[in-house]
C-alpha cells in the first residue's frame, strides 16, 4: 500500500472513532448485584396461593423493622367480602415450632362467616422448612416473636376490608404467651383466644445469652402484667395437656381484673395442641371461637 493510501485509511479510521465517541457507545451489561436476588426472595406484593369457593389465600413477606428480619405471612380473605365491606379478623400465632399454614382448616371455616384470618411464621420459629428469616435462631424467644406479631398487626390494620376495631389474637402453646403479652399494649383488641397454653416458669425460661431475648419487651411478673389487658379472653386446654393447670391459673389472673371476661375450657380426651384434641374438642373450639368473634363484632 502506498504512503498516501495508508494516510487516508488512518484518517478515515480516526474519523469513525471520533463519531462513535461523540454518539456514545452502548453501555456494557451490568451484572446483577449480590443483594438483588436476596431482596427478590422477600416479596412484599401478595401472591395468590389458592382461590376457592369461599376464600382466597395469599402469601407475602413483611419486614420486622426492629429485628430487620423478614416474616412469611398468609392472608385468608373471605370470598363474601364486597367492595366497601369491613369484616373482623383474627391473627394466629403458632407454638415454639410451627408454620403459617398450621391452622388452614380453621381459617377456611372462619371464612364461611366472613372472618378474615392472618397467620405468620415467627422468625426463628422452626429450623426445618423455614420460610421466615432466622431459622438458625430457633427456638426464638417469645420477646422477639412479640415484635413479629406487632409487625403483622400493623399490616392488618392497613387493609381496607378489615374492621380495625375487631381484630382478635389467637395463640397456641408458646404463641399463647406471645399473644397474651402483646395484648397488654393493645386494649383496642376486643378478644384473645388461647389454646394449649398458660404462662408459667417453664414457658418463660430462656438462656442468659439468647440473642433473640429482648428485655425491653419482657415483664418481671407476667401474670400480674396481663391484667393490664381489658378485653375478653377464652382458653382451651386438653385435660391431658401439660399446660392445663397453667392455663387455668392464667384465666384466674384475668378474672381478678375489673374489666373484661375470661373463660377456661377443659377439653376431655385431649392433649397438647390442636392436632391432639379429640374430634369433638376440635369442633367445639372452632364453633366457640367463631361465636366469640362474631358476638364482639
Word description of this protein:
33% of the residues lie in helices and 23% in strands. It has 297 residues and is an alpha/beta fold. It has one domain (43-295): 3-Layer(aba) Sandwich (Rossmann fold), CATH 3.40.50.1820. A nine-stranded mixed β-sheet has the order 1-2-3-5-4-6-7-8-9, with helices on both faces. α4 crosses α5 (174-183). The longest helix has 21 residues, at 3-23. It is globular. 41% of the residues are buried.
Please provide a brief summary of the model.
This protein is of the alpha/beta class and 297 residues long. Helices cover 33% and strands 23% of the residues. Strand 1 (47-51) and strand 2 form a beta hairpin.
Tally of helical segments:
9
The secondary structure category is alpha/beta
Average pLDDT metric: 89
The gyration radius over C-alpha positions equals: 27 Å
Order of helices and strands: HHEEEEHEHEHEHHEHEH
CATH superfamily: Alpha/Beta hydrolase fold, catalytic domain
Tertiary shape: globular
- Tell me the CATH architecture: 3-Layer(aba) Sandwich
CATH classification, class level: Alpha Beta
Largest sheet: 9 strands, mixed
Unreliable spans: 1-38
Strands in their spatial order, largest beta sheet? 1-2-3-5-4-6-7-8-9
Tally of domains: 1
Specify the helix fraction band.
25-40%
Q: Count of DSSP E strands?
A: 9
Q: Remind me, CATH topology?
A: Rossmann fold
- How far apart lie the N and C ends? 95 Å
Beta-strand share of residues: 15-25%
Amino acid at each position: 500500500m502506498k504512503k498516501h493510501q495508508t494516510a487516508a485509511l488512518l484518517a478515515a479510521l480516526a474519523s469513525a472513532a471520533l463519531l462513535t465517541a461523540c454518539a456514545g457507545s452502548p453501555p456494557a451489561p451490568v451484572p446483577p448485584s449480590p443483594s438483588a436476588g436476596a431482596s427478590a426472595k422477600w416479596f412484599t406484593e401478595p401472591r395468590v396461593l389458592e382461590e376457592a369457593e369461599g376464600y382466597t389465600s395469599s402469601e407475602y413477606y413483611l419486614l420486622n423493622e426492629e429485628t430487620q428480619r423478614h416474616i412469611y405471612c398468609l392472608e385468608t380473605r373471605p370470598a363474601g367480602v364486597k367492595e366497601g365491606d369491613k369484616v373482623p379478623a383474627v391473627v394466629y400465632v403458632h407454638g415454639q415450632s410451627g408454620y403459617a399454614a398450621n391452622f388452614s382448616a380453621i381459617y377456611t371455616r372462619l371464612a364461611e362467616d366472613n372472618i378474615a384470618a392472618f397467620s405468620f411464621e415467627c422468625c426463628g420459629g422452626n429450623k426445618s422448612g423455614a420460610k421466615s428469616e432466622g431459622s438458625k435462631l430457633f427456638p426464638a424467644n417469645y420477646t422477639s416473636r412479640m415484635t413479629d406479631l406487632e409487625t403483622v398487626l400493623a399490616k392488618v390494620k392497613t387493609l381496607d376490608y378489615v374492621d380495625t376495631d375487631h381484630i382478635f389474637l389467637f395463640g397456641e402453646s408458646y404463641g399463647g404467651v406471645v399473644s397474651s403479652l402483646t395484648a397488654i399494649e393493645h386494649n383496642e383488641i376486643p378478644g384473645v383466644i388461647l389454646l394449649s397454653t398458660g404462662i408459667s416458669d417453664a414457658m418463660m425460661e430462656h438462656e442468659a445469652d439468647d440473642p433473640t431475648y429482648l428485655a425491653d419487651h419482657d415483664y418481671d411478673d407476667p401474670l400480674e402484667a396481663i391484667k393490664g389487658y381489658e378485653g375478653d379472653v377464652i382458653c382451651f386446654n386438653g385435660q391431658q395437656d401439660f399446660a392445663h393447670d397453667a392455663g387455668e391459673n392464667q384465666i384466674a389472673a384475668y378474672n381478678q381484673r375489673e374489666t373484661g371476661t375470661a373463660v377456661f375450657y377443659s377439653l376431655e380426651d385431649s392433649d397438647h395442641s390442636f392436632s391432639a384434641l379429640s374430634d369433638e374438642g376440635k369442633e367445639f373450639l372452632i364453633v366457640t371461637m367463631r361465636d366469640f368473634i362474631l358476638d364482639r363484632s
